[in-house]
Amino acid sequence: MTTYIVEYNDGEALVETKGHANYADEDYDIVCASISTACILSANLIDNLKLGYNIIDLKCDKGYFRLQVKTDNPIVLGIIKNLEEHLDEISKDYPKNLKKKK
Q: Where would you tag: which of 19, 38, 69, 95 has the fewest CB atoms within 10 A of its CB?
């Protein structure tokens, strides 16, 4: 199962995912692919917008993703909120494979 957190503190946001969804065999897992695509797309979008340096920390490894950003820019905050909503929807559709940690 993949777990994720999204936290907002003092003008920053943190998104972190851990683990493998185990929906299907590796390289065929649509849940893992959806999670990874959403996370990487969001990080790339924040980086490519060139709205100032907003990324504080970024780690992307097999089974692990961490993105910490400054949220003083409303566009960056919107991207993070959109990512959170997307992960929430995947979690609703695949509750055995993705879970939000509180």
A: 95
- pTM of the entire predicted model: 0.93
Q: Which domains does the chain show, CATH number per domain?
A: 2-100 (3.30.70.1490)
pLDDT at residue 99, as a whole number: 98
**68-96 pLDDT, tens digit each:** 999 999 999 999 999 999 999 999 999 99
Report the b/e string of 52-85 with b at 16+ CB within 10 A.
Answer: eebeeebeeeeeebbbbbbbeeeebbebbeebbe
The C-alpha angle 7, 51, 71, rounded to 5 degrees, equals 20
Does the CA dihedral 37-39-45-48 come out positive or negative? negative
Token pair for 93: 């559709």
